[in-house]
């Protein structure tokens, strides 16, 4: 096995749109501030009649359609999310959802049908989630003993669930959405899987290089911490009580200025390193696909890399920061608009809570 390739991409967003002017009605902010500091004009917000799972299923079905595949062609679902409908994970429900959607379309859905669908599990890595999923999928598919041929990688988040709607420093930044890609194992015609020795390197489509990094000493800069209070369980017979912690997660808190500085410092060298590891230079890169957090960050990274802004893919203005969904949501739009074409070199980078930063190069 030599590698794996993205063969389908899809996305979905909630129906409810919230503009900057809408936000200014309940928090002290303005369209002007949000636009000039972030590049965001609007975002989508999940309503109580929608679920993140159904959004993820819609994105996954579109990716399957784009790849001209059926749910039964998928062996594993990797779901990156930090705001799932169920904290125990949504991947298995998404796997069941794509199978059920297909069966009901074919009119063959039966209550008694035993589930025969893909396996699935969740990954939590906030805004780096999609890249962590992509790299994990790549690791499976390029492992010699991997029984899988195709993996669906879904990034879905509804961080509007975690924000404090009275905190203007954070609530204006986030939006909800889902994106998905289908990864397929590519078998080598010849040669060795090592990048430097790969004879197909100059034409091979697929993931060419990647890296994941983290600095846990900076974890406090961006968190959704569990906030418990002491709960005493009284025992019978006067024995000492058992003490547990009961509670809930506190709203998202972020030191925006520190995260901004961190990203500007760490992401450009990571991109240069993966581009070099793929045997390329930044001149060979057709598209820069960054996690959609802030237009100023994207411009600063492009500038550091001496890449023209025309190569920067961006749809942040419409959706805000959709966390694990932002990269596939942007890729899907770019593919549908005919910007990203087969054979194009894309360098992508994720960053966020952890703090983490990651990058990958693929030939689409
Ligand atoms: N409307 C109006 N004023 C505001 C708003 C708002 N929505 N938010 C903050 N302000 C004010 C602040 O109170 C501050 O006022 P002060 O100077 O009187 O105290 C002033 O605007 C400037 O605030 P800064 O924080 O310095 O603004 P900055 O230019 O740094 O922009 C931002 C803030 C947009 C958050 C930026 O720092 C940023 O994008 N940081 C990176 C975020 C990021 O990439 N996160 C990672 C991914 S998220 C994840 O992993 C979940």
Q: Can you put this structure into words, describing what you see?
A:
Residues 190-197 have low confidence and may be disordered. The protein is an alpha+beta fold and 364 residues long. The chain contains ten helices and 15 strands. It is globular and about 75 Å long. It has a five-stranded mixed β-sheet with strand order 1-7-6-4-5, with helices on both faces. A hairpin with a 3-residue loop joins strand 14 and strand 15 (356-363). It starts with a strand and ends with a strand. The chain has helices spanning 20-23, 31-38, 52-66, 91-106, 129-141, 168-171, 256-277, 295-304, 316-319, 326-336, and strands at residues 3-12, 17-19, 42-44, 76-80, 119-123, 150-158, 176-186, 206-214, 222-223, 226-233, 242-249, 253-254, 287-290, 345-352, 356-363. Bound molecules: acetyl coenzyme *A. Acetyl coenzyme *A is lined by residues 29, 33-34, 37-38, 126-127, 168-169, 172, 222, 256-257, 259-260, 263, 293-294, 297, 321, 323, 352-353.
Specify the biggest β-sheet: 5 strands, mixed
Bound molecules: acetyl coenzyme *A
Please work out how many helical segments DSSP would assign. 10
Mean pLDDT: 92
Distance between the termini: 18 Å
- Write down how many β-strands occur, each being a DSSP E stretch of 2 or more residues: 15
Helix content: 25-40%
Ranges where pLDDT stays below 50 over 5 or more residues in a row are 190-197
User: What is the 3D shape?
Assistant: globular
**Spatial extent as radius of gyration:** 21 Å
Report strand order across the widest sheet.
1-7-6-4-5
Secondary-structure element order, as H and E?
EEHHEHEHEHEHEEEEEEHEHHHEE
Question: Helices and strands: which structural class?
Answer: alpha+beta
State which percent range the strand residues make up: 25-35%
